[in-house]
């Protein structure tokens, strides 16, 4: 069964929208560079406005360990997504507290071997500029796509089925193509993204 994450949540209404659409996980971006950055208080309120079955993922890029752990705790995150060039020790230290989605660009795929059997680290492949809405070359990625990895990068309702058909990721994640403007969800796009990913699971994956 595919896992579907809707990222860039910045409000209670958008958290409820994504949860009601059937998302498995909501992303809350704490990276200072992001146009969708949220405070811990906003993320906590939005994350707690949905049921406990929906994962609350704190998204970080190039931030110190103390900041990642402190914000995740105060925002009541249930897992952590890590972008950027990071040492294995750093990722291990976060993974001691939270399940980690370790995000790699195609150029960094050598790092995938490090996390192959780690019980708390799941890989996610994303475009070089996270949150830019640019899609990866799925066919080129196919030979090296790590089994069990998630896929992000330019996904939306109109291309998620094709991406799943090519790479059969364990999860899909999107933000840019689900918005009216940065930080504000497009209801129709969120609903169609989740529904299309669910339908594509039935078509592309062994049951
Ligand atoms: O979206 C952002 O602003 C962002 C900033 C810093 C790190 C990650 C960010 N978003 C992540 O980017 C990918 C895919 O985004 P898109 O669908 O291509 O726009 C996703 O993992 C977001 O969590």
TrEMBL record:
UniProt catalytic activity: N-(5-phospho-beta-D-ribosyl)anthranilate = 1-(2-carboxyphenylamino)-1-deoxy-D-ribulose 5-phosphate
InterPro entries: Aldolase_TIM, PRAI_dom, RibuloseP-bd_barrel, TrpF_fam
Cited PANTHER family: N-(5'-PHOSPHORIBOSYL)ANTHRANILATE ISOMERASE (PTHR42894:SF1)
Entry's Gene Ontology molecular function annotations: phosphoribosylanthranilate isomerase activity
GO annotation, biological process: L-tryptophan biosynthetic process
Gene behind the chain: trpF
Pfam families, alphabetized: PRAI
Presence of the UniProt keyword Isomerase in the record: yes
Residue stretches making up the N-(5'phosphoribosyl) anthranilate isomerase (PRAI) domain: 4-195
EC number: 5.3.1.24
The name this protein goes by in its record: N-(5'-phosphoribosyl)anthranilate isomerase
Protein's pathway: Amino-acid biosynthesis; L-tryptophan biosynthesis; L-tryptophan from chorismate: step 3/5
Species of the source: Deinococcus arcticus
SUPFAM superfamilies to which the protein is assigned, alphabetical: Ribulose-phoshate binding barrel
Family listed: Belongs to the TrpF family.
UniProt-listed CDD domains: PRAI
Domain of life: Bacteria
Keywords associated with the record: Amino-acid biosynthesis, Aromatic amino acid biosynthesis, Isomerase, Tryptophan biosynthesis
